[in-house]
Design brief:
By secondary structure, the protein is of the alpha+beta class. The chain has a domain of 134 residues. Helices cover 42% and strands 15% of the residues. A 9-stranded mixed beta sheet has the order 4-3-2-5-6-10-9-8-7. The chain is globular. It starts with 16 loop residues before the first strand and ends with a helix.
Length: 467
């Protein structure tokens, strides 16, 4: 029988347990107003058993993702904090039943975020689109794919979809708006990306690989991109009007082809690094011809030439590196480089929970960033002797450090704390997490060494007997 909707008021306090209840209630106010009703509707909460309210279930799930706990560690934490004494298997079942609710929370929470006050109101967003590969234990390294759209102007995650490795990259994962500018790498096919972007009224800046695309002139003749690159000088940017063929939809689209070459010295270094990478991956006898394209950036864009010059298009694409930094911060901050579960359904729920935690810290980090913006002037310490030191220094905010600080604050808020006396009082309930059966095939090394040492010390010493 389904229980009624529970309120989120503070339950009876447990001796030896310390909660940050004020901040927790403030965090709950950031969620959609019907988050508890959706928990019942999506069958994440069916009956009151060991857990008193829906807020306790939400808190436990967030602690599981934010702190990187296993289900056994989650059960130990919940018992000590008085949330509920559930077994490891019971927590796993709770997670499985809450998968639809977790997905709904992620979509509702990301969609409900407001743009920062300092951000100017423009017609469209600048979305950096890419997919990151996540690994599960004993996996191939490409087991789960996280397709993300990162808003460059706001500096936050805008849209996300988690799939298995069989789902390819593409703009069909995202809902674009009219006037948006989408920036993708070479993993997204140019023809289909242009078609999907124009269908939704969005513009695009797409990286192009020579072997992946068929470019034509207006009369239908094929364009030899390598010949264009050979006739271009190092360190310059050139632009052409070409037509790209989308074989899936059997249409042609006109795009601006922008070719940017690094300076000669940098291009030679890039080619040398690419050759070394090919040898390391495929052996000393591998074909090194693809390394010639290192140092060459080929972009296809539908942006208007009057508003975006070729140099602006190149600079905008280079800003795509920000989504790579976002993936790196996300994986290091929440340990997403290796998911703790093997099954696809559980892995998907684990990633969604981690993204909810990240979105919570993003909103707080934006407010802290605005507060820090007025504290960027370094106070004067002493007299500056050199003339060049008298110039005004520019200080910037470390978003990496800010995200780490906010994640630690969020973990402390969610996890709470307990006293040593609370640990002693709960020992009888903690046996299921701290005691395990003896191994049948092989003893643990610690147990084996202790048994050997006890037998060795119990043996009489020959010298003492002779005396």
């Amino acid at each position: 029988m389904s229980s009624s909707v529970n309120d989120t008021e503070k339950s009876a306090s447990v001796q030896g347990v310390h909660w940050n209840e004020e901040d927790w209630q403030g965090m709950l106010k950031q969620l959609p107003s019907d988050w508890e009703e959706q928990a019942i509707k999506l069958k994440a909460w069916q009956r009151t058993r060991k857990l008193a309210q829906i807020a306790d279930l939400l808190r436990a799930l967030l602690v599981y993702a934010a702190c990187g706990y296993s289900y056994r560690q989650l059960g130990l934490w919940a018992t000590l904090m008085g949330v509920g004494s559930l077994s490891e298997r019971a927590w796993r079942k709770r997670m499985e039943r809450a998968q639809d609710w977790i997905s709904w929370l992620l979509g509702a929470f990301i969609g409900s975020q407001q743009s920062p006050d300092w951000l100017p109101r423009i017609a469209g967003r600048i979305l950096l689109v890419d997919a990151s590969r996540l690994k599960v234990p004993a996996g191939s390294g490409d087991d789960v794919r996280m397709h993300s759209a990162y808003d460059l102007s706001a500096g936050r995650l805008e849209q996300v979809e988690v799939t298995d490795r069989h789902c390819a990259e593409g703009l069909y994962h995202f809902a674009l708006r009219k006037g948006d500018v989408v920036v993708t790498d070479a993993g997204y096919q140019l023809g289909s990306s242009v078609q999907q972007g124009q269908k939704q009224g969005a513009y695009g800046v797409h990286r192009v690989s020579n072997h992946q695309v068929h470019l034509e002139r207006e009369d239908g003749q094929k364009i030899n991109v390598k010949r264009l690159v050979k006739h271009q000088k190092y360190g310059t940017v050139s632009e052409y009007r070409v037509w790209v063929w989308d074989p899936k939809h059997k249409e042609r689209f006109a795009v601006r082809l922008v070719i940017s070459l690094l300076p000669r010295k940098q291009a030679m270094q890039a080619r040398a690094r690419k050759q070394e990478h090919i040898r390391h991956k495929k052996g000393s006898k591998a074909n090194l011809a693809p390394a010639w394209w290192a140092g060459v950036m080929i972009l296809g864009t539908t942006l208007a030439k009057e508003q975006w010059s070729a140099q602006d298009v190149v600079k905008l694409y280079r800003a795509r590196w920000q989504i790579e930094l976002f993936f790196k911060r996300l994986k290091q901050g929440l340990h997403l480089h290796l998911l703790p579960v093997k099954l696809w359904e559980r892995a998907r729920a684990s990633v969604h929970l981690s993204l909810i935690v990240w979105s919570l810290q993003e909103q707080e980090a934006q407010e802290l960033s605005e507060a820090l913006s007025g504290l960027l002037i370094e106070p004067e310490v002493g007299l500056l002797q050199e003339q060049e030191e008298q110039q005004q220094l520019t200080w910037v905010i470390s978003h990496w450090g800010l995200a780490y600080c906010e994640l630690e604050t969020l973990r402390t808020l969610l996890r709470g704390s307990w006293t040593r006396q609370r640990l002693r009082d709960c020992l009888s309930d903690l046996r299921r997490y701290l005691v395990s059966r003896q191994r049948c095939r092989r003893l643990s090394q610690e147990t084996e060494v202790q048994q050997w040492l006890l037998q060795r010390l119990a043996m009489p010493v020959k010298g003492a007997i002779a005396a």
